[in-house]
Design goal:
The complex is a heterodimer of chains A (196) and B (172). Chain A is an alpha+beta fold. Chain A is built from 5 helices and 5 strands, in the order H-E-E-E-E-E-H-H-H-H. In chain A, the strands form 2 sheets. In chain A, strands 1-2-5 form a 3-stranded antiparallel β-sheet. A two-stranded antiparallel sheet of chain A has the order 3-4. The longest helix of chain A is centred in the N-terminal third of the chain and has 45 residues, at 3-47. The radius of gyration of chain A is 20 Å and the shape is elongated. Chain B is mainly alpha-helical. Helix content of chain B is 76%, strand content 5%. The longest helix of chain B is centred in the last third of the chain and has 39 residues, at 133-171. The chains are: A alpha+beta (196), B mainly alpha (172).
């Protein structure tokens, strides 16, 4: 690839990033709305202690978690079974990994129409993968922060659950790295699959 | 997927995780009272005061303060996530030691400068229209920064490859 081609690729990437960002800003809630049942399934599988009801309320993705069994907070205190608590993240927050993933996939210099079609096809499982590893765990992590704070107020320390560890990892930049690497892996896989 | 791509992704992901966990061992107090004011805050405040002397911005621990705005620099607002990503990618690429060191130094400077522009920009955004802060801070800035860093990484890998081809030609 010569310098001109690199320049064109960078310009293409910038245009794609801008187009996706604006599309996400003005209509991203529709995409997130479509993903809500998927978020609920993943959240329930990852927590196995709650019934998940996830909705978009104004500009936020709100997770209403109804405890199936008593959720221990401290040795003396627990969240009673049947009670509902909630956590939330903004819709824009949920869109960040999606914008990064599609910027990588759509910017990738496909050689032919077949490769472009394969890229579009692989973007669906890639989208589901980054959606499963970001929003549901962030929502669960937010709940856990509440429990951690309650335990701290009671003067107790509580083991950090996986959802909280993962949330901190993704919030620190992992939710940028994950879609970037997923996009790169998807493109590399498509190149391999479409090699003559 | 070829082995090299798989190796790159695996090393970058593992290194990122290691950097992240090491970073979280640094206490919040050290970041907010020592690192943020000295490494980020004063430089950003000087930039703002140079560009707009009437703002008379001061730095108090992790906060950049003027009469009209206050911007808190908190864990994660220091560009660490992007820096870890870029460093992990540079190491994972498996270039020569010289290329890796040059990439690390230039990459660190690039991330630092981009983050300073972000911090100064966010300060003006708060001052001008607070309602713009959440979308710019949460949405536009992170994705744009990732794009810019990817551009740096692409340029660096190109430089490495060109250099290696030139060295191979000389040896041949």
């Amino acid at each position: 690839m010569n310098n001109k081609a690199i320049g064109l690729l960078a310009a293409k990437g910038l245009v794609i990033w801008l187009a996706l960002s604006l599309a996400g800003f003005f209509a991203g809630d529709k995409l997130i709305n479509t993903l809500l049942p998927f978020y609920e399934t993943v959240t329930e599988s990852a927590s196995n202690g709650y019934i998940a009801n996830i909705k978009i309320v104004e500009d936020d993705v709100v997770f209403y978690a109804t405890a199936l069994t008593a959720q221990p907070i401290t040795p003396e205190r627990s969240l009673p079974a049947g009670s509902t608590i909630q956590s939330s993240i903004s819709v824009l927050h949920a869109l960040v990994p999606i914008v990064i993933l599609f910027t990588v996939i759509l910017t990738w210099p496909a050689n032919c129409l077949k490769q472009r079609l394969y890229l579009l096809a692989i973007s669906i499982p890639a989208l589901l993968f980054i959606s499963a590893t970001s929003v549901p765990i962030q929502l669960l992590g937010q709940l856990e922060i509440g429990f951690q704070n309650a335990a701290l107020q009671a003067g107790l320390s509580r083991d950090e659950p996986f959802a909280l560890t993962w949330m901190l990892l993704t919030e620190g930049g992992g939710r940028w790295l994950l879609p970037a690497l997923t996009g790169l892996a998807s493109c590399a896989l498509v190149v391999k699959l479409t090699k003559p | 997927m070829d082995f090299q791509t798989f190796r790159f992704i695996a090393i970058a992901a593992i290194l990122y995780g290691a950097f992240h966990f090491a970073y979280h061992k640094v206490p919040d107090e050290v970041l907010s009272t020592k690192i943020y004011p000295n490494v980020i805050g004063h430089f950003a405040a000087n930039t703002i005061n140079t560009l707009t002397p009437d703002r008379n911005v001061t730095v108090k621990d992790h906060a950049i303060i003027s009469k009209a705005a206050k911007l808190n620099i908190v864990r994660g607002c220091d560009g660490s996530g992007v820096w870890f990503m870029l460093t992990a990618a540079i190491v994972g690429f498996g270039a020569s030691v010289r290329h890796t060191i040059v990439g690390f130094v230039l990459g660190t400077l690039t991330v630092y400068l981009i983050n300073q522009v972000r911090i100064v920009g966010l300060f003006y955004v708060i001052e001008y229209n607070r309602a713009w802060f959440p979308p710019i801070h949460t949405y536009y800035a992170p994705t744009l920064i990732i794009f810019l860093i990817a551009g740096f990484f692409l340029a660096w890998t190109r430089w490495c490859s060109k250099d290696e081809i030139a060295t191979d030609s000389k040896e041949a």
